[in-house]
Write a structure and sequence with these properties.
By secondary structure, the protein is of the alpha/beta class. The protein has two domains: 164 residues, 3-Layer(aba) Sandwich (Rossmann fold), CATH 3.40.50; 80 residues, Rossmann fold. It contains twelve helices and ten strands. Strand 7, helix 9 and strand 8 form a beta-alpha-beta unit. Helix 2 crosses helix 3 and helix 9 packs across helix 10.
């Protein structure tokens, strides 16, 4: 398995939109951590894979939507570790497969499907028992790697930042889907620093409880100074706006970096165009590349 690039690179972004607000911004390039499991996917899967292998499991089962980067990453991890992988997809099968699911199948993943009502109950014993009956002995990884192992993996980011940025920073900012990355980042912060999560889902008020639950599972208690910002979802998960698309194209032209559009672009847009963290020293966690 290819070795990860650790610590992931930290580079300061020079942009007139930042200097106009008195903001300094560093990009924590977790999108470069691993060629097949980039960004928070590697951090959230690493300890899960260690646990599965230590227990002798030969199959992984996980969940995701039809365009899930998580399904892609688990499929690639299974191939690298010679583990069978089953991806349970939200909704009905649609053929031909989209590029994300085609990639997962190409990596050896077998796809299963749950209707949306059953998918909402995917963490309940009846649904999990039925899946185990169908697929046999499997190691279950929650959607997005959102469990204690995934959270502990994400907590390692701030230890790297303490070494890479000895002058310090005020806030570390990340995009939020399941809340696992934010839960881990907040745990590792030293006094006087906070984590800000930019929600990419519309109306995801229950994320507060999810982050707290994940921290309790991972560390035994809710911890750290963190907040959620719900203003920059651009219509909801995997949705976009002309303003966001223009921002992505302009960023690539100006800085030579193509942004992942579902998570990364929305959170970085909140900083550069939305004024999030104005006048402060920020670190932005680039959680993944375009897929």
């Amino acid at each position: 398995m290819p070795e990860p690039l650790l610590p992931s690179p930290l580079t300061e972004l020079r942009d007139p939109r930042l200097s106009a607000k008195g903001t300094r911004l560093w990009l924590k390039r977790d999108d470069l951590v691993h060629p097949f499991l980039p960004g928070n996917k590697w951090r959230k899967l690493r300890l899960n894979l260690d646990e599965a292998l230590a227990a002798g499991h030969r199959a992984l089962l996980t969940f995701g939507g039809a365009y899930s980067n998580h399904l892609r990453a688990v499929a690639a991890a299974g191939r690298l570790h010679r583990l069978r992988t089953i991806g349970v997809v939200r909704g009905e099968e649609r053929l031909p497969l989209n590029p994300s699911l085609s990639y997962a199948v190409g990596q050896g993943m077998t796809l299963d499907y749950l209707d949306r009502a059953a998918y909402r109950r995917k963490r309940t014993p009846p649904v999990l028992d039925a899946l185990r009956e169908r697929w046999g002995e499997v190691f279950v990884i929650p959607e997005g790697g959102a469990n204690a192992a995934g959270v502990r993996g994400c907590a390692e980011v701030t230890a790297e930042l303490d070494v890479q940025l000895p002058g310090g920073y005020d806030h570390v900012v990340t995009a939020v889907g399941t809340g696992a990355t934010l839960a881990g980042l907040a745990h590792g912060l030293t006094a006087g620093r906070s984590a800000v999560g930019v929600c990419v889902l519309k109306g995801a008020q229950d994320l507060i409880a999810d982050v707290e639950r994940l921290q309790v599972e991972a560390f035994g208690r809710a911890c750290g100074d963190w907040t959620l910002d719900h203003r920059f979802h651009h219509g909801g998960f995997a949705r976009s706006t002309p303003q966001l698309r223009e921002f992505v194209a302009g960023f690539a032209e100006r800085h030579g970096v193509e942004l992942e559009p579902v998570y990364v672009a929305k959170a970085l847009h909140a900083i550069l165009e939305g004024g999030l963290g104005a006048g402060r020293r920020l670190v932005f966690l680039v959680t993944g590349p375009p897929m």
